[in-house]
């Protein structure tokens, strides 16, 4: 969540420097509004107008692309003037008007798979976007509801969604979230982020979605899930090496369609 201008600039600078050092591609993500708070008293962010000003400053100062999520259809045109990619939140992935409005901007869109959705159902959502004019669609796996206050990651969903012709991203930190486990906030088990990321990379993904914060204990959103910023380079470096090794393995590859 974009808590403030200062935090936005601090994290953007750190991430851009890290990406340059490791030689990786980076898309900076921050939410201007966390509209699905557990409690009405939850902090939601700086709002769309202030966020766009901050994003413009970040892009002027640092060499990074920006993605943010939208919650209402009218926000698509506003954010499309500033950001490079639009994200559809998991809880809203079936909202047709939202997907269509994002697709019509012409920007690439990242659609998070709802925690209540099977991977095969995401084909319909991809079709919504494509039939609305977008061919640049990514899908993001972020776990599936498993009873109350818990998520599991089914790695079978990665090749299934990839079979739709979309790059698939694995959300390493939302996948270890404990939705609503804190009564008025969500909990999380950040120590499993590396475990799940290793599994996803071994299966094959186009990228990782990772939340970070310089001071997780003071984070206003998902503090229990984020990777502390001082640990992020070590985490990313390890995943980078695993990804490189995984792609060097020579094996007979069968697609999901061939085996289904």
TrEMBL record:
<dbReference type="InterPro" id="IPR006269">
    <property type="entry name" value="KDO8P_synthase"/>
</dbReference>
<dbReference type="Pfam" id="PF00793">
    <property type="entry name" value="DAHP_synth_1"/>
</dbReference>
<feature type="domain" description="DAHP synthetase I/KDSA">
    <location>
        <begin position="2"/>
        <end position="246"/>
    </location>
</feature>
<keyword id="KW-0963">Cytoplasm</keyword>
<dbReference type="InterPro" id="IPR013785">
    <property type="entry name" value="Aldolase_TIM"/>
</dbReference>
<comment type="similarity">
    <text>Belongs to the KdsA family.</text>
</comment>
<keyword id="KW-0808">Transferase</keyword>
<comment type="pathway">
    <text>Carbohydrate biosynthesis; 3-deoxy-D-manno-octulosonate biosynthesis; 3-deoxy-D-manno-octulosonate from D-ribulose 5-phosphate: step 2/3.</text>
</comment>
<comment type="pathway">
    <text>Bacterial outer membrane biogenesis; lipopolysaccharide biosynthesis.</text>
</comment>
<dbReference type="InterPro" id="IPR006218">
    <property type="entry name" value="DAHP1/KDSA"/>
</dbReference>
<protein>
    <recommendedName>
        <fullName>3-deoxy-8-phosphooctulonate synthase</fullName>
        <ecNumber>2.5.1.55</ecNumber>
    </recommendedName>
</protein>
